[in-house]
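Audit log entry. Action: structure prediction of a protein-small molecule complex. Ligand: zinc ion. The ligand was supplied as SMILES and no pocket hint was given, so placement is left entirely to the predictor. Protonation state taken as written. Sequence taken verbatim from the request; no trimming, no tag removal. Recorded inputs:
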Amino acid sequence: MIECKEICNLLSDLIDDELELNLEKEIRRHIYKCEKCSSSLNTFTKTLDLIHSIKSQPIPLKVHKKLWKVIYIETRHLKVKYGQKRRSLGKHR
Ligand SMILES: [Zn+2]
């Protein structure tokens, strides 16, 4: 059974279509039933739409940081810190 915090970590992969089909199905099933995760996905999707809509111009770092802050705030009930994944990947270095 997949947990909310795992979903949160995988949202960007889900949107980028980088997940195994089985995992994707499981996540979509969870999101369908879970209000928290579906609102997180909504926030994520909306933010990405925003980014895509201004893609023709480079996004200033300040704006980029703000967007991630919004995502973090919107998903903080999941108690997941963005960048956690990256940190654990670099652990063995
Ligand atoms: Zn959930």
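Audit: result stored. The mean pLDDT is 79. The first helix runs from residue 4 to 16.
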